[in-house]
Each structure stands twice: as C-alpha cells, then as structure tokens.
Design goal:
Length: 306
Amino acid sequence: MVFQYVVKHEQNIDCGGGYFKIFPSTVDQKTLKGGADEDKYNIMFGPDICGYDKKTHVIFAYDGENKLVNKKPKAESDDLSHMYTLVVKPDGTYKVSIDGTEVQSGELREDWDFLAPKKIKDPAMSKPSDWVDEKKMDDPEDVKPDGWDEIPKQIADPEATVPDDWDEEDDGVWEPPFIDNPEYKGEWKVKKVDNPDYKGEWVHPEIDNPDYKDDDSIGVYSDFGVLAFEVWQVKSGTIFDSIIITDDEEEAKAFGESSFTSLVEAEKKAKDVVEEAKKAAEAEAEAEDTDDDEDDEEEEEPKDEL
C-alpha cells in the first residue's frame, strides 16, 4: 500500500501537526473523533512539528494499541509544499519519503515494538560476585608527597605596599591583597594503572524468549474506509493536497510528479519574485534616505561666528 499527500504550512508553523489518520469503514463520519480512547484508526502518518522537535509520525494500530516507530523520520517546517509518502509492502518492509527522496526504511518487526523480543536475558544468570570490570585501578605505589596539602592556593602579594594615604585609625590594619600561589599544584590525585584482574565488560547471556510469537497480521487491516486530517495547530493556515492511496508505487510516483513537481517549481519562482521585489524596495528606500541626507546638508546655512 502507498499513502501519499502534499502538505503546506503557509504560516511558518512552529507547533502543530499535518498528519492524517486512516480509519476502517465502520466508523461514523458524522461523529468521528480521533482521540486515543475514541474512534480507532489503522494508520497515522505525516509531519508533526513543535520547536526543535520535527518528526514524521508513522503509527500502526496493533493488538488494541497504537505503536509508534522507534526511529524518528525528519519533517519539513518551511512554508513550501512538501510531499510525504509511506510505502508498506507485503514482505513486512516499509519506506518513508519526503519530496520523492527516501528518508527512512526498514522492517516493521525491527522498527516497531509489535512483538515480544526474540531474545531475553537469561534469568538464571547473573554477574559473578568476583567479576572485575574496572579497567583501571589506583596505583598502590603512588604516594602523596609530604607537605602537598600545606601549599595554599593563594598567598599574600609580596610586592604589595601600604598606600601612602592609608590611615590605620580610619582604615584599620592594612592587609596585602592575595594572588594565586605559583607553587600551588592543585588537589592531589592518585595515579591510575591497568588493573591486572580486569576481565572485561560482563555480557549477560541471552536465551530464546518463550513468550515470542511471530504474527503475519502486522501491518494488515481488514479495510480502509475513512481518511481524516487531524488539525491540531497553534497557527492556522495549513493546506492539504494531491492525496492518493494505491497499491501501485509507480502510480503514486507518476501522480506526485504531475501534481507536486510543477507546484513546487511555481512556489519557488513566486518566492524568488517576492524576495527580489523586497530587495528592490529596500534598495530604493535606502537610496531615498541618502538623497534626503544630501539635500539637508545643502540647505543648512552657515552659522555666524561670535
């Protein structure tokens, strides 16, 4: 199956979603609600942006739960149109593309937690009590030098002198300022040496998980009946277009090229025109300011000298 559509955030969106949810045909569109405890969808797909978190959701309903992809495909957040494509194949693989370029792919069983893990840590095994996993140890022959702790961090400045205007009756007893002690060596730390008893990092042995069971129904749904866009946004103004659901990837690609490519080219040209017009207006305004300054200088009369 191929799910593909175009979304444009004209308002320079900073927080909000542009994703769809596809429901089975049994839902009632008059009362449709997409909350977690409301109408259950099959698949949720599309961009979700909030601040620095810009991701493309890929969520499958499975065994009564909504399973999020463990990876985080990127999402676009500018004000141009972008085409999002999700391909799910019968062999259990998937692919996510933006503007016709693949951004993530893999296997459903590996990138979602649909099933219990195939392997688990052996509950009968634990790290031996005498296992040494410290690679370094304190050098037993390294001893702190005598007098190390007696060296102060700062000392009175030996070159400081009492100011000429110092009055002990008014100012009190004069004390020289402190400076960093050049003899100070910092906090003493024992040297580290290789630990002769080091055995390496202990790895917990694994065994086959008795609760693991494969399931051929992953990514399989009885039907798709309703597609809805869940518009949850701080700013309004998102446009959805060029929606296609098909079982032919080449058909989706051709449809995207015919509808999306020309659209983006037109948008970029229009944006360039606006930017050029803006630059021209700024240059014209700057030139007018310069002319006004020159006129002011010419009109200024010389002042009489007193």
